[in-house]
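Fig. S4 source data, part A: sequence.
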Amino acid sequence: MTDHAITLDGMVPDSLRPTSARILLDSLEVQADIGFHDYEIGTPQRLIVTVEIWLDHVPPADCDDPARAWNYDYLRTQVEELAAARRYNLQESLAHAIYQRIAAMRGVKKLRVVTSKPDIYPNAKGVGVEIAS
């Protein structure tokens, strides 16, 4: 066995070369003071947040430089901070706050934000909203 990287230059047909790249923060569980019913106000609830970011470039295959990568910790922290920042009556309001914060970051070409309350209906995985470009 060798430690050398296997090079497949010229082996991948042009039709299979990557044309897009996406960052995915999938099903992050946060606590949020959210909802407009009396029993919801002041009682934080579980909220599941998914953020999909399509990049305006495709990183080269040989790029392994952390300085050129997205900081997943920063992305996660932004979502957590927004969820805890204030009380929200509607999931739509929080989803838009997350959307605006992420849309302002460098390299974002398209964006999708999904929020879901998983504990509302016993016979449903969740109830939520989605906004996307």
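Fig. S4 source data, part B ends here. Residues 115 and 129 are 5 Å apart (CA to CA).
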